[in-house]
Amino acid sequence: MTLADLDRGKRAIVLGYSDVVEPSTARRLFDLGLAPGVEVTMIRRAPLGDPVIFGVGDYEIALRGVQARCITAKPAD
Amino acid sequence: MIALHAERVAADPQAVRWVVPAGSLPAGRIHSAPGRLGELLADGSLSAGLVESTAVWLWLRDDLSWAAHGTAVQAALRAALDVPNDWIIEPAPGEVLARVTTDLLDGSVGDFIRSHGGSVSVQQMGPDLVSVQLGGACEHCPAAGQTLRSKLMDELRRRCPDLTEVDRDGTELTLALGSGRG
Amino acid sequence: MGHAHHGGGGSTTANIGLKRFAVVGSPNSGKTTLFNALTGLHAKTGNYPGVTVARFEGRTRVDDRDTVVVEDLPGAYSLDPISPDEQIVVDVLDTDQHRADQHRADQHRANHRSVGLGVPDALLVLLNATTLRRSLGLIAQVHQTGLPICVVLTFTDDLARRRGRLDIAALTRALGVPVVPVVAGHRDGVADLRQVMAESDSWSTPVVAPPTDPAEVTAWIESVLASCDYQVPEVDHRTRRIDAVMLHPVIGTAIFAVTMFLFFQTIFTVAAPLQGYVEAGFGWLGDLVAARVHIPWLSGFLSQAVIGGVGSVLVFLPQIVLLFVLIALLEGTGYLARAAFLMDRVMARAGLEGRAFVALLSSVACAIPGIMATRSLPSAKDRLATMMGAPLMTCSARLPVYILLVSILLPAGSRIGPFSGRGVVMFALYLMGAVSAMLVAAVFKKLSSRGGPVLPFYMEMPPYQVPRLKNVAAEVWTAVSAFLRKVTSIIMTATVVLWVLLNLPLRGDAEMTAAGVDTGSETAVAAYVIDHSYAASVGKAVEPVFAPLGFDWRINIGILSSLAAREVFVATLGQVAAAENPEEPAAALTEMRVQDGPQAGRLLFDAPTIAALLVFFMYALQCMSTVGVMRRESGSWKWPAIAFGYMFVLAWVLALAARTVVAALW
After folding, report:
1. Which residue of A40, A59, C393, C431 lies most exposed, with the fewest beta carbons within 10 A?
2. How does strand C179-182 pair with strand C149-154?
3. DSSP C338-407
């Protein structure tokens, strides 16, 4: 499962990044706090479908679908 | 991976207080440890080691510096903490308590006392007891003494949950860990 | 997303010998606010050599004697660079590891300077107290540079408000470096920081360096946070609730549409009465001059060159100020991030992103803050592409020109359907400007996208805040003072030079009589002087270029002079018209006829010519200030030159097309 599959209000734990991801992208996602083991909440989607706001720890980050699909995760419960 | 970080010890450049998760090891003086850490202790590179409830104190031999050896010691400590049962730690409540108290008094609590015109000294009395002597403004002001005393006790208790006050005589406190054997 | 930095060129040569502090931190850590608080409004801006990354440097006093240099490095999430911004941070912080070797340290310093980088003596690392878990990773990396570090802890007020907790004394012990909490808007923190900066030689360092391996760093961070009793702040409920409305698919979009509508309404409706006052003021001034100054040439100079030129521009000052205030307020509350979020999908179709929309929106007031707003875009390619498109947004400088031409084209009461004719045309002009800006930015982005890794899109959504009035005022003042500087220096110079060129060479009576001019008539004399002035020679010289568009030498002078600033076009035409009909210059314009050549006798400002003019002004880069800002922001003359070139060609071609179409249909 990836973060792109999270429904509104649902939480997931980040597992890692997909193989096709560029190392620089993976590094950036890590630096932003979307690191393995971190719990992420899907907060809302933009009216046109993209991007999506995720709650990570104490702050919120907007990601496009193409990036969210790079982050593998498992449901938090 | 075990969460740990290093803190400086005021007034003792050869010592480092390694903050580790609470309850990793029993408190006391380190006799020996597994792996590389044990080797460092055995060959004298680390001249001494002490465990309090939330930290491991390590002293480097006088001619060595933490700048050069810190990373290696950290790796050794981390590896050794993975096998807590292989450590040999001798209970030494007096020594641990004295060390912790001195540390607190070198830091924020001591600053607090000194800023109120007070002075404080610590002494280990025997293997189990520690005596804390308040002086200066504390000598003549019973209320000040009370405030400072309770502040010290609160901070101490956070670091040593099984702290006991054995005796209080004016400005002198006698403290012990555990049930407080005399 | 802030663009409260401003100022003229940058140079570090004046700062040699002073201690240098570099400010490091992630975007959204409050760097801009801190930098402004430390350096006041006296920061110099410039560029890092060879890249599209803006550079900010300023000075501050740390105690009674010492002034130090403070450099605000670009925001960086980590020292593992994936963008030019972060590469700059890495480059600046790249201290030779053998600093103990003085010779190598000096060598390194010289190398840095030779490429235009300053070597910092100490670092201020900003950590956002509400995102501490993430921010601490940066500290571990920065320690590897070996430079003395002081942590500046920001947003501690937000942390408390959201019921988070942090023992700062414990954090100081755990990190082994000085930690200074600073709350934006409170002076105490900054005063404390200054004192700490004064003692940078004796900053403590961690006894053991933090780990560098990512897994170990995570463990280290856990340990540090545990020892400080760190309580993660609660979700910012206030922001969540507001976003539930502001980003609601239906309500949020509606609010956005209304906000945009109101934004554009201020351009016309709200500012209009204010404009009336300014206009009246200048009219009064003009009358005063006419009444009191009896030396004809001086009177003409003052009323036309000075009052007419500057006045025609300052009339739009209320509207510009209002627009800047609106933008600063929207940004200060955090709403612009939401606007960027809502528009991201649309901008993505053009290969750009939501924050580019914000930069383009700012350009509606003036391209200069709009171009500066591109700093918020993490991708250098996005920055350049947006910069290339921003001048096409209909800025307030085009308004005097549009208004003048549209009023000649259509009479006041004309209507197209139920709407005012003039209103429809103006709306169409704005729309075309916006669409063109997007298209051009898309094209540039496409052209530059070949090769190189694509930066992933991400945007932090900052919590909603009550905008700090001081910051809003600073931003508005920055933008307004840049505009006023443009008015007084560029526009005034241009109109004065123009006045001189239009009124020289002086003609003797004998010459004029021989040419059949009635020397008794002031009007006739003035017309003759202008027709044979230096300006006229220049205007006639470039006729081959503009003749296909239907422009004559008078319009040509207007266009050439407007290369300095668009508003000068109106002042120029005003001067030319006033010479022909001092009483009613407006009428003179509508009645002007082509003087010679194959189209002699035709009304100069007929519909096809006006259409061509409008389109020309829509596309041509006629603003030296914009050129200057582009050079500063992009780091070289190459990009402003490209912008000028492509826009001129586009303007000429499309003006010709407009002329042809209108001539066929009108």
Report:
1. C431
2. parallel
3. HHHHHHHHHHHHTT--HHHHHHHHHTTT-HHHHHHHGGG-S-HHHHHHHHHHGGGS--TTHHHHHHHHHH
- Which CATH architecture does the domain made up of C13-234 adopt? 3-Layer(aba) Sandwich (3.40)
Q: Work out whether strand B88-90 and strand A52-56 pair parallel, antiparallel, or are unpaired.
A: unpaired
Distance CA C460, CA C454 (A): 19
Q: Which of C209, C219, C224 sits opposite B70 (nearest CB)?
A: C209
> Are there at least 3 beta-carbon pairs closer than 8 Å between C and A?
yes
- Residue C364 vs residues B146, C322, C491: alpha-carbon distances, Å: 68, 12, 20
End-to-end alpha carbon distance in chain A: 14
Q: Using an 8 Å CB-CB cutoff, list chain C residues near A50.
A: 344-345, 348
Determine contact: B71 vs chain C, CB below 8 A. Answer: yes
Give, to the nearest 10 degrees, the angle between helix C335-349 and helix C237-246: 50
Its CATH architecture, for the domain A3-75, is Roll (2.30)
Write out chain C residues lying below 8 Å of A43, CB-based: 240, 243
Are β-strands B5-8 and A71-75 bridged in parallel, bridged antiparallel, or unpaired?
Answer: unpaired
- Return the residue in A21, A54, A60, A66 with the most chain C beta carbons within 10 A, the one to mutate for interface testing: A60
Decide if A8 touches C, using CB distance below 8 A.
no
> How many C-beta atoms surround the C-beta of residue C255 within 10 A?
17
Interchain CB distance below 8 Å, C344 and A51: yes
Give the pTM: 0.78
Top CATH class of B93-177 equals alpha beta
So where are chain A's domains? 3-75
Q: Across all residues in chain A, what is the average pLDDT?
A: 88
Residues C132 and C117 sit within 8 Å (Cβ to Cβ): no
Taking only the tens place, the pLDDT of each residue in A28-65 is: 888 888 888 888 999 999 998 889 999 987 789 999 99
Mean pLDDT computed over B109-114: 78
Q: How far apart are CA C503 and CA C301, in angstroms?
A: 10
- What's the average model confidence in pLDDT over C172-193? 90
Token pair of C372, please? 């500066």
Question: What's the angle, vertex CA B16, arms to CA B10 and CA B19, rounded to 5?
Answer: 105
Residue C226 with chain B: CB contacts under 8 Å: 3, 19, 21
Minimal CA separation from B69 to chain C, in Å: 9
Task: Give me the torsion for CA of C262, C263, C265, C271, rounded to 10°.
Answer: 120
Assess whether pLDDT exceeds 70 at residue C103.
Answer: no
Any C CB within 8 A of B58 CB? no
pLDDT, one tens digit per residue, over B41-79 is: 999 899 999 998 889 999 999 999 998 999 999 999 999
**CATH code for the domain defined by B5-90:** 3.30.1370
